[in-house]
Specification:
Elements: H1 3-9, E1 13-21, E2 27-37, E3 43-44, H2 46-56, H3 59-73, E4 81-86, H4 94-97, H5 99-108, E5 115-119, H6 128-140, E6 144-150, H7 156-163, E7 167-170, H8 182-198, E8 201-205, H9 210-219, E9 223-225
Parallel strand pairs: 2-4, 4-5, 5-6, 6-7, 7-8, 8-9
Antiparallel strand pairs: 1-2, 1-9, 2-3
Helix pairs in contact: 2-3, 3-5
C-alpha cells in the first residue's frame, strides 16, 4: 500500500463537478468529487484509494488533501454552492483537523455559506457525539452540512433527528425506479417528511429517469442530482 503515500505527497488528484439542480432544473450547486491519478496520468477509482489509505493509516491525510483541493476548486463556481465530501471517522479533533480548511477558505475569499460539507460513510459512525462536535464546529463558523446516502445504514431517521443537517440526500437506491415501486415511494416519503420536520432541504441523488424526477418533484423533493442533469465533469458548466 506504499503507493498511497505518493498519491498524498505528490497531490495526485483533481476534481470533477456534478450539478445539483432545483425543481426548474436550474443549477443550484455542484458536488465537487475527487478523482485520483496514477503517476502515468491514468485515473484510479476513489474507493480503491480510500480503502488503501484506511489500510495504510493515511485516511486523515487523504481526506484533508481532498477537502483542501475541493475548497480551491470551489472558487470556480461563480457564487454557486459547493458540496464537499468528508469522512468524519478520519477526524479526531475538529479544532485541530479542520482549521486548515477554515483558514484556506478565508484566504481564498470563499463565503462560508457557499460550502456544504457532506458527511459520507455514516454507517461507520459509532460516536454520534463526536460527529455532532464536528458539525457544530463547521456550523458555528458559517458553513453548512449535508447527510449523504440517507436510508442506508442503521437508525438513519434517528441520525437525521439528532444531526439536523441543512440538506438531506436520499440514497440513490430509493430514487432509481421510485416512480414505479411502492416500497421505494414509501421510504422516499418517510424521509421527505422527516427532513421537512427538522428543517432540512430534501435532495434526491442518482436521478437518471424523467419519470423518477417528475414523481420526486411532485411529491415534494426540492433538489436533484444525477446523470439526468449531468455527469461529473472536469469543468463546471455554470
Amino acid at each position: 500500500m506504499e503507493w498511497i503515500d505518493q498519491v498524498i505527497k505528490k497531490k495526485l488528484l483533481t476534481c470533477y463537478f456534478q450539478p445539483i439542480v432545483n425543481r426548474e432544473e436550474s443549477i443550484y450547486a455542484f458536488e465537487i468529487l475527487a478523482r485520483f491519478k496514477k503517476e502515468d496520468g491514468n485515473l484510479v477509482y476513489p474507493n480503491l484509494i480510500f480503502e488503501a489509505a484506511r489500510t495504510r493509516g493515511r485516511l486523515y491525510a487523504l481526506d484533508r488533501l481532498c477537502r483542501l483541493t475541493a475548497v480551491r476548486h470551489a472558487t470556480q463556481l461563480d457564487g454557486k454552492k459547493a458540496f464537499i465530501n468528508f469522512i468524519p471517522t478520519s477526524i479526531y479533533s475538529p479544532e485541530f483537523c479542520l482549521q486548515s480548511t477554515i483558514r484556506l477558505s478565508a484566504q481564498l475569499g470563499v463565503d462560508p455559506s457557499k460550502l456544504v460539507f457532506e458527511v459520507v460513510e455514516t454507517e461507520k459512525v459509532e460516536d454520534l457525539e463526536h460527529l455532532k462536535s464536528i458539525l457544530t464546529y463547521y456550523r458555528d463558523r458559517g458553513f453548512q452540512y449535508a447527510l449523504d446516502d440517507v436510508g442506508e445504514g442503521y437508525s438513519t431517521i434517528n441520525m437525521l433527528e439528532d444531526l439536523k443537517p441543512h440538506y438531506m440526500k436520499l440514497d440513490m437506491k430509493f430514487v432509481q425506479g421510485v416512480s414505479e415501486n411502492k416500497n421505494k415511494q414509501h421510504i422516499a416519503k418517510m424521509f421527505l417528511k422527516k427532513s421537512l420536520d427538522i428543517g432540512s432541504i430534501p435532495l434526491a441523488e442518482g436521478v437518471e429517469s424523467r419519470e423518477d424526477f417528475e414523481w420526486l418533484k411532485q411529491t415534494g423533493y426540492e433538489l436533484f442530482q444525477g446523470y439526468l442533469f449531468g455527469k461529473p465533469s472536469p469543468t463546471p458548466k455554470v
